[in-house]
């Protein structure tokens, strides 16, 4: 019994999105049509693949097994298309993106959407180490990573530069200089990320270089929590400048240093074996173009 690839692609879209409505938009077909195709697949093989009535839908054991094989199948199909010189990106193509740099990922997505209007995204936010693991396991197509560890079988495209700045409550005493002396950090409560955070490791390198330690640290897991804690007057923090959206409760101060240790670079990373696939090749092209404009 031959497999109906139209029905299989419909299942793959629903399983990827965990939503019939999102999958229908991705495939540019109606929800009733997509539901009929999914039902036809289940009835033909007398197996339940997806459970639930509302998103997020749940894959059955058989559904999970089929999803893994379908993911490999359509990935290989894309690679064959690239090998044969196929440049066109499928309508509703899904780009799976992992990142430890959400603001830059959002800018990349906007540029990609402008170039490929029918593209869809699934984004996983994690730290640099976790994002690299997602790439390694092929759970994402591309990674946007700050200072990634260099892997011999990866291809990297420079994407952005950023620098550490201090964020303090708006009530912070103002000496008129508009900058943060590094020695002041020794007297303050500093909000920090988890131990594996790139922000924390960059801060630690900088302070170790000048022989300064924070007066006290308070570990908070997310950027959002750190910004809110600073806004509430619980202390200060060092963050990358792009991570500091306008907030009247917070002041952003450059650090009083010329050290290059406050600077970081971010890259778009892909597995080299997949870089000829149209979706990933276009990603690399867009990343290089953005790097030239200095996002």
UniProtKB/TrEMBL annotation:
GO terms for molecular function: DNA-binding transcription factor activity; transcription cis-regulatory region binding. It comes from the Bacteria. Residues 1-60 form the HTH lysR-type domain. This is HTH lysR-type domain-containing protein. PROSITE patterns: HTH_LYSR. The keyword Secreted does not apply. InterPro entries: LysR_HTH_N, LysR_subst-bd, WH-like_DNA-bd_sf, WH_DNA-bd_sf. It comes from Novosphingobium pentaromativorans US6-1. Belongs to the LysR transcriptional regulatory family. Keywords: DNA-binding, Transcription, Transcription regulation. Gene3D superfamilies: 3.40.190.290, Winged helix-like DNA-binding domain superfamily/Winged helix DNA-binding domain.
